[in-house]
Amino acid sequence: MEYFLIYWQALTQFSNEIAPYILFGLLFAGILHELIPDSMVTKHLGNDNFISVIKATLFGMPLPLCSCGVIPLATSIKKSGASNGATLSFIISTPITGIDSILVTYGILGWVFTVYRIITSMIMATVAGILTNLSITPETSNGTSSTAGQAGPESCNSGCCTCKGKKDRATDAGDAKPWGFSLSSALHYAFAKLLRDITKPLFWGLVIGALITVATPGHLSETLIKYNWFSYAIAVGIAIPMYVCATASLPIAAGLMLAGVSPGAAFVFLSAGPATNTVTIGIVKKILGSKALGIYLGCITAGSLLFGLGLDWLFGVQGISVQELVHLPARAGWLAVASALLLWAMLLYFLAEPWIARTKPGSCCTKGEK
């Protein structure tokens, strides 16, 4: 019972941290879907070339979205015709360097760390996008590549089992609509279409992510100091599956540095943590395929380790004192609880939707089962 309570507390805390960013990402994706025509996305991000990857990287960098908040927006631009490489570079660059985290990075760690973080995130995102375009053709990728937005045959075991859900998917990107903004359409697209698409991997990501949080050593800084040579690998191994947004990861990284951990090891955590988590890993595999997932994790792991070593070298050459550099702000938040409750209510509804549909006489799921 004690272990269950510990896990429940971790799941609650995990949900409180992640929910506001996911809901904001969904809302932002819905608004962009209304304001930006699919043809514009296809024109600028749809080609499998270097320019589309650069555009996706630059487009994603200033957006204030975390690794989970970027999921619905990345799914949306992929459905709108973005290439695999552009989508992956967008997924990597956006959560590391949102405008909010850039400002907080400067406030906590100074301009050297801030500029270094921006440049390295651009390099990792661009390399991953180029490798994806070179390695994966639209025909071999999973998810929503060349048939993005088109309605294909779906089984009654899918997360969108109702006839209405199938109709929504069929008309998601296939029908041209006149330019204009409708708040109701934006909300419907965000919370009735995109969230339904990512419900299962998001649910399991939350559950597994909380489990990893419980299993992570309580005194992380002491662990990294104890295993100095292996501290980089330990940091990236913990950071990749764990959810920690770019802004919230900064006090953690600053605390590690103040505790004696090298700036490079803290950078590894600060870079790999916001860029990945169990939720994003599942979504990347779903919409881009296993090969893209390997490129995604490989570029982030190798890039974080390489640039972490580079930061230690830079700090050593410049003679920068970490203890004098770091300033930790306070943090709080009541809105997180309401966001978590709302998110879980919608997730549980979409998970139960297939069973609800089966119990309705004359539904698309009950037909053909007799």
Keywords for this entry:
17 helices; mainly alpha; 370 residues
SSE order in H/E notation? HHHHHHHHHHHHHHHHH
How many beta-strand elements?
0
- SS summary, helix count: 17
Give the tally of structural domains: 1
Quaternary structure of the protein: single chain
Rg:
21 Å
The percentage helix is over 70%
**Category by helix and strand content:** mainly alpha
Please tell me the overall pLDDT: 75
Low-confidence residue ranges: 143-176
Q: What coarse outline follows from CA principal-axis ratios?
A: globular
Largest beta-sheet details: none
Q: Tell me the fraction of residues in β-strands, as a range.
A: under 5%
The N- and C-terminal alpha carbons lie at a distance of 43 Å
What does the model show?
The chain has helices at 2-35, 38-45, 50-60, 70-79, 84-96, 99-135, 163-170, 183-197, 199-215, 220-226, 231-239, 246-258, 263-275, 278-288, 290-318, 322-325, 335-358. With 370 residues, it is mainly alpha-helical. It has one domain (14-148, 157-358). The longest helix is centred in the N-terminal third of the chain and has 37 residues, at 99-135.
Please sum up the structure shown:
Helix content is 71%, strand content 0%. By secondary structure, it is an all-alpha fold.
